[in-house]
């Protein structure tokens, strides 16, 4: 090694006045203060950080046919975009219930909707899993309309502290409610290779399930922690070393997406709670009550389709969507997160 190389020191990172953390970095996190920034980000086809753009709003409202005086349930409040549009249809008459398991975002959404004039006279927000819709109906009575917009919100994905995205360094958590259950990092600590492979295949059809599981379990066996999003991304990258160089980058990206999705489904028991929700749905709907569900991957859509079809055959639903409804090309251009959306609906007999 020559002298010069020995002397070389890593450049000290300029701290200056640049924003350092996620919270300091994005003006979009204060939409009231910077409306032009928010409008510009949306115009460019992106979702402003700290916001969620609601999907298929027109299709949902066209189907639900909400009338003043009705009682409705938004099973997945999120940013409250759909809740807001549904409440507008009530024209100050009737009531809207809204659920979310996320204790962090629910507080912000409640505050935002109250600020827009939608308080407890028209809206009841509950931190509850939609698997327990029977509990809400027990108090509220049956619903004339129900919406479920499954999965995660943009705010959850964009917040590195939540660990939902492999693109951002953060703790490997992936819980919708970080106060309950175990994080994805903890889950990986004790899982067997076979179970992990099954999870990757069942939850997201991962073609490299064997290689990725081998990579993860080898690391754990060496006594190493997989506690961050980027560490998991690196292991997936290493596991896919054998993919031809010209295809590797894309293959790693797709496998990261699928692996994170599979882990998220697992730590939040997403299939189990969706199954319970679908089972309880008919009992919480009024006669003629309408339900619309937005799904984002084939596993979810399969469950919804199967339940609606079976209950239609049994005469519990009088009508169901014969074909899945997709967001328009225009909507997908404005909001890339809409591209995988499928909407299905049913009407209670
Ligand atoms: C796609 S976002 C909903 C966005 C919302 N429709 C809007 O317009 O802003 C999904 C939300 O559902 C919540 N969620 C997911 N599974 C849930 C469950 N089992 N029970 C209650 N909320 C759930 C997530 O925490 C997230 O906030």
UniProtKB/TrEMBL annotation:
InterPro entries recorded: RsmH (IPR002903), SAM-dep_MeTrfase_MraW_recog (IPR023397), SAM-dependent_MTases_sf (IPR029063)
GO biological process, one term: rRNA base methylation
Compartments in which it is found: Cytoplasm
Catalytic reaction annotation: cytidine(1402) in 16S rRNA + S-adenosyl-L-methionine = N(4)-methylcytidine(1402) in 16S rRNA + S-adenosyl-L-homocysteine + H(+)
GO MF term set: rRNA (cytosine-N4-)-methyltransferase activity
Keywords: Cytoplasm, Methyltransferase, rRNA processing, S-adenosyl-L-methionine, Transferase
Keyword Cytoplasm part of the UniProt annotation: yes
The enzyme's E.C. designation: 2.1.1.199
Coiled coil feature spans: none
Transmembrane segments: none
Annotated Gene Ontology cellular component terms: cytoplasm
Binding site for S-adenosyl-L-methionine: 80-82, 100, 130, 149, 156
Presence of the UniProt keyword Methyltransferase in the record: yes
Family annotation (HAMAP family): 16SrRNA_methyltr_H
Role according to the record: Specifically methylates the N4 position of cytidine in position 1402 (C1402) of 16S rRNA.
Family: Belongs to the methyltransferase superfamily. RsmH family.
Matching NCBIfam families: 16S rRNA (cytosine(1402)-N(4))-methyltransferase RsmH
Name this polypeptide is given: Ribosomal RNA small subunit methyltransferase H
Organism: Robinsoniella peoriensis
């Amino acid at each position: 090694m020559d002298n010069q190389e020995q002397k070389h020191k890593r450049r000290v990172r300029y701290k200056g006045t640049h924003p350092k953390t996620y919270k300091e970095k994005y003006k979009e996190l204060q939409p009231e203060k910077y409306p032009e920034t928010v409008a510009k980000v949306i115009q460019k086809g992106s979702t402003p950080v700290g916001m969620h753009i609601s999907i298929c709003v027109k299709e949902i409202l066209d189907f639900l046919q909400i009338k003043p005086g009705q009682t409705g349930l938004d099973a997945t409040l999120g940013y409250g975009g759909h809740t807001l549009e549904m409440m507008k249809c009530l024209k100050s008459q009737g009531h809207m219930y809204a659920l979310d398991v996320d204790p962090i975002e629910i507080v912000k959404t409640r505050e935002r909707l109250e600020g827009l004039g939608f308080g407890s006279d028209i809206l009841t927000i509950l931190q509850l899993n939609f698997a327990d819709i029977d509990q809400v109906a027990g108090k509220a009575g049956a619903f004339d309309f129900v919406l479920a917009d499954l999965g995660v919100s943009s705010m959850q994905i964009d917040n590195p502290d939540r660990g939902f995205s492999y693109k951002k360094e953060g703790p490997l958590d992936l819980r919708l409610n970080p106060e309950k259950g175990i994080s994805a990092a903890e889950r990986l600590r004790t899982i067997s290779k076979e179970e992990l492979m099954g999870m990757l295949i069942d939850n997201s059809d991962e073609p490299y399930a064997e290689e990725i599981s081998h990579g993860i379990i080898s690391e754990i066996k060496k006594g190493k922690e997989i506690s961050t999003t980027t560490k998991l991304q690196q292991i997936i990258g290493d596991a896919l070393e054998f993919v031809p160089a010209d295809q590797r980058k894309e293959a790693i990206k797709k496998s990261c997406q699928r692996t994170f999705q599979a882990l998220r489904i697992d730590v939040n028991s997403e299939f189990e709670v969706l199954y319970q929700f679908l089972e309880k749905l008919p009992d919480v709907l009024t006669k003629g009550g309408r339900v619309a569900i937005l799904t984002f991957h084939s596993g979810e859509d399969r469950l919804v389709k199967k339940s609606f079809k079976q209950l239609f055959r049994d005469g519990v639903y009088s009508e169901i969507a014969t074909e899945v409804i997709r967001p328009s090309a225009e909507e997908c251009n404005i909001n890339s997160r809409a591209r995988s959306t499928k909407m299905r609906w049913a009407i209670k007999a």
